[in-house]
Amino acid sequence: MAIPGVTALAEDSALQDLQARAAKADAEAEFLVGRAYFRGDGVAQDDQKAVEWYLKSAAQGNAKAENNLGVMYHAGRGTARDDAQALDWYLKSAQQGTSIAEDAVGQFYAKGWGVPRDDSKAADWYRKAAEQGLEAAEIHLGNLYYFGGQGVRQDLKEAAKWISKAAPQGDPWAQNALGSILENGFGTDKDPVKAADWYLKAARQNYAKAQGNLGRLYANGTGVEQSWPKAYAWLSLGAAGGDVAAGKFLESSQNYLTPEIVNEGKRLEDDCRAQINNPGGASKASP
User: Fold this and answer.
1) Minimal CA–CA distance to 100: which of 142, 70, 129, 131?
2) Which residues pair with 149 in a beta bridge?
3) Which of 39, 40, 35 is nearest to 51 (CA)?
4) What pLDDT score does 245 carry?
5) Number of structural domains, the chain?
6) Phi/psi of residue 151, each to 5°?
7) pLDDT of residue 14
8) Which pLDDT score, from 0 to 100, does residue 284 have?
9) Are 12 and 41 in contact (CB under 8 A)?
10) Which of 117, 172, 214, 267 is surrounded by the fewest CB atoms within 10 Å?
């Protein structure tokens, strides 16, 4: 679970000023001192002191300190692990509208951490965070509707709505899922061309399932020009990355894979691997 970033305390005077303000019960300063101890930013890293200062700040209702206490209790850092306590602090922060805390509460209900599992409540909290544009929550909510859950029926239209918001932000799972949604027309119109494009984006991030899906599209000529060498290249990468379906598709396609196709496919596989290792060098014309 993400923790807000820290601006480095480059000068001792900056930390001294924070400590002086914190000593006067300034809630924001107490939070920042706690965060400095958590990160070892200008002081020796010390989780216990981080928790002490977060508690001082949270006692005054600082939402960021409440969220970070949730992190500490859930991870067992600076204190004994206690999911019930973690959830309590996340809830306090979430009730003030902190999106990452809202998403965290959703995860606690979805996983049954410190509370009985309740996917319906998880969806409610994910939605609050997703409506603030938090990518992780868009993914969690889209995933929940994509597969369905306890008390949450599968809703591919809702899944498509939230996954389509997350995919442009670069998450490979969301990109591959959006590709599947568009290829199959799950909750939206079929668009195999756009599906191939989303599979490619995830495949270039070395997401094995997307590599296998893209290879299958090239084999069938769906949304792309049919090409067995390109199919071989992406299917091979997907299979090597653990996509069982890609490996099975390759095995079932042996009659189409002449020595010439395999040789060209291996060359293209090297090109694809180079794109993965150097994404900035990928060209639109490459497979």
Assistant:
1) 129
2) 152
3) 35
4) 97
5) 1
6) 85, 0
7) 80
8) 37
9) no
10) 267
For residue 197, being part of any structural domain is answered with yes
| Residues in the chain with pLDDT values less than 70 | 1-13, 278-287
CA distance 43 to 35: 10
| Per-residue pLDDT at 79 | 98
Per-residue model confidence (pLDDT) at position 16: 86
- Output the domain CATH number for residue 226: 1.25.40.10
Q: Which residues contact 160 (CB under 8 A, 6 or more apart)?
A: 142, 178, 181, 186, 187, 188
Residue 204 counted as domain residue: yes
Determine the structural domain holding residue 266 and report its residue range.
Answer: 170-287
How much is the CA Rg of the chain, to the nearest whole Å? 24
Instruction: Flag whether 165 is in a domain.
Output: no
Listed residue (133, 135, 130, 129) closest to 101, CA to CA: 129
Per-residue pLDDT tens digits for 90-101: 999 999 999 999
The two tokens of residue 74 are 């859930």
User: Whole-angstrom Cα distance, residue 218 to residue 197?
Assistant: 12
* pTM of the predicted structure, to 2 decimals: 0.82
Give the pLDDT score at 280. 54
User: Cα separation of 134 and 52, whole Å?
Assistant: 29
Q: And the tokens for 274?
A: 């180079």
Concatenate the DSSP letters of all residues of the chain into one string. Answer: ----------SHHHHHHHHHHHHTT-HHHHHHHHHHHHHTSSS---HHHHHHHHHHHHTTT-HHHHHHHHHHHHHTSSS---HHHHHHHHHHHHTTT-HHHHHHHHHHHHHTSSS---HHHHHHHHHHHHTTT-HHHHHHHHHHHHH-BTTB---HHHHHHHHHHHGGGT-HHHHHHHHHHHHHTSSS---HHHHHHHHHHHHTTT-HHHHHHHHHHHHHTSSS---HHHHHHHHHHHHHTT-HHHHHHHHHTGGG--HHHHHHHHHHHHHHHHHHH-GGG--TT--
Quote the pLDDT of residue 216: 98
Encoding tokens for residue 57? 């700040």
